[in-house]
Design brief:
Number of strands of chain A: 12
Helix content of chain A: 40-55%
Number of strands of chain B: 0
Largest sheet of chain A: 5 strands, antiparallel
Strand content of chain A: 5-15%
Oligomer: heterodimer
Distance between the termini of chain A: 61 Å
Structural class of chain B: mainly alpha
Number of helices of chain A: 16
Strand order of the largest sheet of chain A: 1-2-4-5-3
Shape of chain B: globular
Largest sheet of chain B: none
Number of helices of chain B: 17
Shape of chain A: elongated
Radius of gyration of chain B: 21 Å
CATH topology of chain B: Amino acid/polyamine transporter I
Chain lengths: 466, 371
């Protein structure tokens, strides 16, 4: 601190934190005979006032029975003698003091001193650790990330005791000044990727880090692709598994989600359960998920080409019911499929934010009433509805929400190409998807690539130790 | 160079061994593979499957030449070496012939695919639409670099085997009489069939261009031989099962004999296997077109002295390719002309490879001594 005047320092802090902020400044005296003017400064809501009163103010105000005037290294002496807390620090730089106060630390300033004692009495209300709603498991751990960064750091640290586990912090957002924690295991992480990530996070210049999704988009390479560029999880055990594979985990203060870098396409089809289940069962589930993605992308298009262009390829036993079910339907098969798929998207998007009680009504209206009446009013044929229904169910098998959305969106261009060019359209769509996936990379690591040695944990999961 | 580029340079520019195998395999197995028996049957009759194996002499010879060139100059492909050893004009001319060859091959594949797709499943499509769609997506893939096409080729390689595998079911309905008597066409018949089969192995010449891009240089011989072996296996099997199931008389009258074999496969939901076959084979053909497109871009980049990026070149030649493809039958009105061009190029490739192998063998040691 440049000045040793208590009043000046308090004003400086007040001005930097914001005059209209909930800054609490309590002035008091320390010592006998010639008591020193002191002040304790913190932001209300971020600290536990009980600790401050009991462990800081009480000893300093009542137990200092000596004259402290002219004492050398006073800040150090006070924190060692009168503050019975494990986490105290003496800091000189005003910028650091202000930053720490903003992050929930408490500062003690004393008149005539250019240092401040910083105390960690962080508190305030935060959501407790609960099971992540979007990534549930049967046999896995039940804890999920929370909004509090310290809690998230501790949940990861509790799981990895390796001395090589590194946690770097960055500040993001001019106004929010959110803390970003970057985790990695130093001995196995790719240093080029780490340096690149550091560079990109530092280069982000925004007012506020609104969410992890925003940061993802700021640091990714391919802005226009529909495929998610980095994997996100709400589960600490999943984040730890990623760290153990040499990846980097990024968590922003205030968001219960972790991002893993670099990410690969196949990662989005793997679930925590795969590693808890028996090998055969887990492998079956994985194959099922990839098959489901294939169904979402292709089944409506194949159905469309079969009934529109290649009727001769449908077995005669199927032709009769399909033809009968289409009698009197005015819409083209393409319009039928698109219409029903869009209605499903309405239901999905609507149901996403609705309270669960109203969501039941939505599923009743959407699923039963619309489905039933659409057939009875001859808007769609039962066969089309079946195909769309199977496709929708298949999308739920993709464990990652980002990837599931992406595959769902991709079914529309495939459908349009199939409508325009029949079977050739499907082939072209698939080729484009494969070529596009092959052209992507995540921080320089190919996004979609198969190596023989990796196949033991790609589409199937082989036995452990083999 | 930023860190991402550093990682990309380490991981992404060169091909892994399996990608290299897939590329070499992918150039030889494509649109003409399902009609492999067409030309050979005239010479070798029921022994055509032996001729398909004899035809492998062509890729083996090209492979030997490449190994000679590769040993002497592993970092430069034939396009660079042509200019280096034969000067700007002669070297440029040799490269131009290669460029025209890749262009014509692209047109042939494109045209054959148009015939196939419009005959079997999408008769409502105009040749222009098919050509535009097919070449545009191939241009997209090729413009993203060889590694992208190589990855797609890897998937296509697995798909090729997946598609060919069900044809085993044809064995139970085949007649042994169709392949008897073995060796009836005699030595000359089988050899002539083998020479005819050379054209089925065209595509191997891509190794002249891509060998500097293999990451593990010490595995060059192994991966190329693997690709040739896999290709020969596919060709011999298609030749064998076609003649075993259909007989040489039926093959003579069919353009795409292997498609008839696939009819023997029945899937309960779909009337015949052909739909799935055409769908997946389309992917394989798109992969072949992308590979040739990449080769064409390599030649074009060399021709424009590396002034333009692949992305620009790919979309500049696209309209020309589409135009030439729909005018294909006017440019090459008869099959004889096409046969003549194909044979000329087989001879040219053998000549070019041999010439370069001799040249590097004579000139390269001197240069090394100089250095």
């Amino acid at each position: 601190m440049d000045s040793n005047s208590l009043e000046q320092n308090i004003n400086l802090i007040r001005n930097n934190i914001g005059t209209k902020n909930y800054l609490t400044v309590k002035e008091f005296y320390i010592g006998k005979e010639q008591p020193l003017d002191a002040a304790i400064v913190f932001i209300s809501g971020l600290v536990n006032k009980e600790i401050i009163d009991r462990d800081v103010l009480a000893p300093l105000m009542y137990k200092v029975n000596e004259n402290l005037t002219g004492k050398a290294n006073l800040a150090d002496y006070l924190s060692k003698t009168y503050i019975p807390m494990s986490n105290t620090d003496v800091i000189e730089k005003m910028d650091d003091i202000i930053t720490m106060i903003k992050r929930g630390k408490t500062a003690i300033l004393i008149n005539g001193m250019t240092e401040a004692i910083l105390i960690d009495a962080a508190g305030g209300e935060a959501r407790s650790i609960i099971e992540p709603e979007n990534e549930t498991t049967v046999k896995g751990a039940r804890d999920g990330f929370t909004e509090k960064l310290e809690t998230n750091i501790s949940t990861i640290k509790r799981r990895i005791k390796d001395k090589d586990l590194m946690i770097e912090t960055f500040t993001l957002g001019r106004r929010t000044q959110s803390e970003v924690a970057v985790f990695y295991i130093d001995s196995i992480v790719d240093k080029n990727i780490l340096n690149e990530l550091r560079k990109r996070i530092k280069a982000v210049d925004i007012d506020g880090a609104i969410s992890l999704g925003m940061l993802q988009q700021y640091i990714e390479d391919y802005t226009y692709t529909v495929f998610p560029q980095s994997f996100t999880t709400e589960r600490p055990d999943r984040a730890v598994a990623e760290l153990l594979e040499g990846r980097i985990i990024v968590i922003i203060e205030g968001y219960p989600v972790a991002m893993s870098i670099p990410s690969l396409f196949i990662q989005f089809f793997q679930a925590v359960e795969d590693y808890n289940q028996r090998t055969v069962v887990a492998s079956f589930s994985r194959i099922l998920r990839v098959f489901a993605a294939f169904i979402v992308l292709t089944l409506p298009s194949i159905y469309l080409t079969l009934i529109k262009y290649n009727v001769e390829l449908i077995p005669i036993k199927f032709v009769t019911p399909i033809v009968q079910s289409r009698v009197g339907i005015a819409l083209t098969p393409f319009m039928e499929i698109v219409l029903m798929s869009i209605i499903v998207e309405f239901l999905r998007e609507g149901g996403l934010r609705l309270p669960s009680k109203i969501a039941q009504t939505l599923s009743l209206v959407g699923g039963i009433i619309i489905g039933d009446t659409a057939i009875k009013s001859k808007i769609v044929s039962p066969a089309t509805l079946l195909i769309v229904g199977v496709t929708v169910v298949a999308t739920f098998l993709i464990p990652n929400y980002d990837m599931s959305l992406c595959i769902r969106i991709l079914q529309f261009p495939v459908l349009i190409l199939a409508n325009m060019m029949g079977i050739l359209g499907i082939a072209i769509a698939w080729f484009l998807i494969l070529a596009h996936l092959s052209s992507l990379d995540s921080f320089g690591v190919p996004y979609f690539e198969f190596h023989l040695s990796d196949l033991k944990d790609t589409f199937i999961r082989l036995l452990y130790g083999k | 160079m930023n860190n991402r580029e550093k990682i990309l340079k380490e991981n992404d520019y060169n091909l892994t061994s399996s990608q290299y195998t897939a590329v070499v395999f992918g150039t030889m197995v494509g649109v003409s593979t399902i009609s492999i028996t067409k030309g050979i049957v005239r010479y070798a009759h029921q022994d055509l499957w032996i001729s398909t194996a004899v035809g492998a002499i062509f890729p083996i010879y090209i492979f030997i030449l490449t190994m000679v060139i590769f040993k002497k100059s592993p970092g430069e492909n034939i396009l660079t070496l042509n200019r280096k050893y034969f000067g700007k004009f002669a070297g440029g001319l040799l490269n131009l012939i290669l460029l025209v060859y890749f262009l014509i091959t692209l047109l042939i594949i494109g045209n054959t695919y148009i015939d196939m797709i419009t005959t079997f499943s999408a008769g409502f499509l105009s040749p222009f639409k098919v050509a535009l769609a097919v070449f545009a997506v191939s241009a997209y893939a090729a413009s993203n670099g060889l590694r992208v096409v190589a990855k797609v080729s890897q998937i296509a390689l697995y798909l090729t085997f997946l598609l060919i595998l069900p044809s085993i079911m044809a064995l139970k309905e085949a007649k042994i009489i169709n392949i008897y008597p073995v060796f009836e066409s005699g030595f000359s018949g089988i050899v002539n069939g083998g020479i005819e089969a050379f054209k089925q192995y065209l595509g191997i010449e891509i190794i002249f261009i891509i060998y500097p891009y293999l990451k593990q240089k010490d595995k060059m011989a192994k991966v190329t031989v693997n690709a040739i072996l896999l290709t020969t296996l596919v060709h011999v099997w298609i030749g064998f099962i076609s003649v075993y199931y259909l007989g040489s008389d039926v093959i003579l009258k069919s353009d795409w004999s292997f498609l008839l074999v696939t009819e023997s496969v029945t899937i309960s939901l779909i009337n015949n296997f052909r739909y799935i076959f055409i769908l997946v084979w389309s992917l394989i053909i798109l992969k072949s077109i992308s590979l040739y497109y990449s080769a064409l871009l390599f030649c074009l980049k060399d021709f424009t002295s590396n002034k333009f990026q692949y992305k620009i070149l790919a979309f500049v030649v696209l309209p020309l390719l589409v135009l030439l493809c729909i005018e294909f039958e006017n440019i090459f009105p008869t099959e004889e002309i096409l046969n003549f061009i194909t044979i000329s190029y087989e001879i040219y490739l053998i000549f070019l490879g041999t010439l370069m192998a001799i040249t590097v063998s004579i000139k390269s040691p001197k240069e090394q001594r100089k250095n």
